[in-house]
């Protein structure tokens, strides 16, 4: 935790391999005895959980190209405000998987459940 304090990141990304969610850091419930409230990313509510589609977007996978758009929009929202991630994801899935996602499915991709970490 001392290293996190020293780095004081502007943004934190949580992978799907981790059971932790952004709200765990916001509420200081991630790790007992660790105070996240002084970390800039937490104070400014810039903690993001990676989406989960065909596979986890964090490691190399078939959905990895989408993670670049996700990070660009998260890191620089004003610069990429014209990018609609729901539409981009739907178009990608249609093109590469021949799957037509509905709005509910897209929301599930962008809001993975804690249990997706598979007990990690």
What keyword list fits this structure?
mainly alpha, 40% helix, 120 residues
Order of helices and strands: HEHHEHHH
Give Rg in angstroms: 15 Å
Helix fraction, binned, reads 40-55%
What spatial form do the alpha-carbon principal axes imply?
globular
**Largest sheet, strands/sense/barrel:** 2 strands, parallel
Mean pLDDT across all amino acids = 93
- Which structural category do the helix and sheet elements fall into? mainly alpha
| Counted beta strands | 2
The end-to-end span amounts to 19 Å
Strand line-up of the largest beta sheet: 1-2
Number of helices: 6
Task: List unreliable stretches of 5+ residues.
Answer: none
The amount of beta strand, in percent, is: 5-15%
Structural description of this entry:
By secondary structure, the chain is mainly alpha-helical. 40% of the residues lie in helices and 5% in strands. It contains six helices and two strands, in the order αβααβααα. The chain has helices at 2-7, 22-26, 40-43, 64-75, 85-97, 103-110, and strands at residues 12-14, 47-49. A two-stranded parallel ribbon has the order 1-2. Helix 4 runs antiparallel to helix 5. It starts with a helix and ends in a 10-residue tail after the last helix. The mean pLDDT is 93.
Topology:
Elements: H1 2-7, E1 12-14, H2 22-26, H3 40-43, E2 47-49, H4 64-75, H5 85-97, H6 103-110
Parallel strand pairs: 1-2
Helix pairs in contact: 4-5
């Amino acid at each position: 935790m001392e290293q996190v304090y020293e780095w004081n990141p502007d943004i934190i990304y949580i992978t799907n391999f981790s059971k932790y969610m952004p709200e765990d850091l916001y509420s200081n419930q991630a790790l007992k005895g660790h105070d996240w409230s002084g970390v800039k990313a937490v104070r400014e509510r810039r903690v993001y959980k990676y989406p989960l589609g065909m596979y986890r977007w964090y490691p190399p996978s078939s959905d990895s190209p989408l993670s670049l758009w996700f990070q660009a929009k998260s890191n620089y929202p004003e610069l990429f405000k014209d990018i609609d991630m729901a539409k981009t994801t739907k178009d990608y899935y249609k093109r590469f998987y021949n799957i037509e996602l509905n709005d509910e499915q897209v929301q599930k991709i962008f809001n993975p459940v804690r249990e997706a970490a598979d007990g990690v």
